[in-house]
């Protein structure tokens, strides 16, 4: 349709949302479906956070706020960055948006010009390339293979940088692989970036508090202070505090960039929900017991899923450092056929046939830029994970 903007032809709907929606439709139609496709904790939002939201409503805090957030929450975010990451920011360096996705989008829209390149390690979160395309830039995926634990190497980063490179989007622990970079691994990457002062770093730290086996999270500007003036450090409350629907993400960075992002937001959504902001304030400043409660549960689920998937014929599932995803390879299934005669030519066919045959919904690897794999979210109950992984084992065993 010529009526629609040409820019829309460059992007596609989110595959993760599409698959989760399809699973919901099948379930509503009476199918026995287990959706392992959504990146959403199954825990309820902690009571102290809900109580803070109710108190904000009762106190009449239901009006417009400043376009990019209330000063109280900005101060709390500054304190969080100092406490957790040893990063010093002032409130004027902070932007609060309707989820982490809007933070990233605002930054890209505010900075990209036609021809600008954005390096994105693959596998990547499905939205990164499309947001770059909507901003008029060119995504440059750089593959990080299973042999490297899905982590970008310094040599690959160096090779990908050109005079047109404007951003590196960096995500650790990663969606979709759960891979987390150690301080030494991250320092090796920042050493490369220091040599290229025209490259900025957009770091998505959304899974910071979901790290296992003693893995110590670190973020680029913390590891290499020389990058402080060209780093946008992005985080939020969605994953860590089970607040996905509250839609609060935030970032800190140079004042000029934050001001530009504020301008974009003021002419799009304006302020994020006032009630959600007061809830997020409680999340960051109130008791942190929830983090210590949820982390060992997620780690137990991870260990269960990794063990069961590695027992499935044709699958290889690395053990990730964090987040709540695994990204098994189906290389051993490629070329086989289902009992109905459908040949498993790629991971999209695998995921489609898995859902059709067993009712287990996963996201195929091509959506994340690296095949042949699929993503499992283990942010659901242990009983559902056992049932789902058993079905995956049975499906893989049926291939010949």
In short:
With 400 residues, this protein is of the alpha/beta class.
Q: Which key terms come to mind for this protein?
A:
400 residues, alpha/beta, Aspartate Aminotransferase, domain 1, Aspartate Aminotransferase, domain 2, 2 domains, 7-stranded mixed beta sheet, 3-stranded antiparallel beta sheet, EC 2.6.1.-
Outline type? globular
**How confident overall, as mean pLDDT?**
96
Q: How are the strands ordered across the major sheet?
A: 2-8-7-6-5-3-4
The unreliable regions are none
Q: H/E element string?
A: HEHHEHEHEHEHEHEEHHHEHEEEH
The biggest beta sheet reads: 7 strands, mixed
User: How many β strands by DSSP?
Assistant: 12
What is the CATH topology assignment of the largest domain? Aspartate Aminotransferase, domain 2
CATH class of the largest domain: Alpha Beta
Can you give the helix content as a percent range? 25-40%
CATH superfamily of the largest domain, called what?
Type I PLP-dependent aspartate aminotransferase-like (Major domain)
Give the percentage of residues in beta strands: 5-15%
Span from first to last CA? 44 Å
Number of helices: 13
């Amino acid at each position: 349709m010529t009526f629609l903007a040409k820019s829309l032809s460059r992007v596609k709907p989110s595959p993760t949302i599409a698959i989760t929606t399809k699973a919901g439709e099948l379930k509503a139609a009476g199918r026995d479906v287990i959706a392992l496709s959504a990146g959403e904790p199954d825990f309820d939002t902690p009571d102290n956070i809900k109580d803070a939201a109710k108190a904000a409503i009762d106190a009449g805090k239901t009006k417009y706020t400043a376009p990019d957030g209330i000063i109280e929450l900005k101060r709390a975010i500054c304190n969080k960055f100092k406490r957790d990451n040893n990063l010093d920011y002032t409130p004027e360096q902070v932007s609060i948006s309707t989820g982490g996705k809007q933070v990233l989008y605002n930054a890209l829209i505010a900075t990209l010009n036609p021809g600008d390149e954005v390096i994105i390690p693959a596998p990547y979160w499905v939205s990164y390339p499309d947001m770059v395309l909507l901003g008029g830039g060119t995504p440059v995926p750089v593959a990080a293979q299973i042999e490297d634990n899905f982590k970008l190497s310094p040599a690959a980063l160096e090779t990908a940088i050109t005079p047109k490179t404007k951003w590196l989007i960096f995500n650790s622990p990663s969606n979709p692989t759960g891979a987390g970079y150690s301080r030494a691994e991250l320092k090796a990457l920042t050493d490369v970036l220091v040599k290229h002062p025209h490259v900025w770093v957009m770091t998505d730290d959304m899974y910071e508090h979901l790290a296992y086996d003693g893995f110590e999270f670190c973020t680029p500007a913390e590891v290499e202070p020389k990058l402080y003036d060209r780093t946008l450090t992005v985080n939020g409350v969605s994953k860590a505090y089970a607040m996905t629907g509250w839609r609060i993400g935030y970032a800190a960075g140079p004042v000029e960039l934050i001001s530009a992002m504020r301008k974009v937001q003021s002419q799009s959504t304006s302020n994020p929900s006032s009630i959600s902001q007061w809830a997020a304030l409680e999340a960051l400043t109130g008791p942190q017991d929830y983090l210590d409660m949820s982390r060992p549960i997620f780690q137990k689920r991870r260990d269960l899923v990794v063990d069961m998937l590695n027992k499935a014929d044709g699958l290889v599932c690395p053990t990730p450092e964090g987040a709540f995803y695994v990204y098994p390879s189906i290389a051993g299934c490629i070329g086989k056929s289902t009992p109905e005669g459908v040949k498993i030519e790629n991971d999209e066919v695998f995921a489609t046939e898995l859902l059709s045959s067993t009712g287990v919904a996963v996201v195929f690897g091509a959506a994340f830029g690296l095949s042949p794999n699929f993503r499992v979210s283990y942010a659901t109950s242990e009983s559902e994970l056992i049932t789902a992984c058993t079905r995956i084992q049975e499906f893989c065993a049926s291939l010949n």
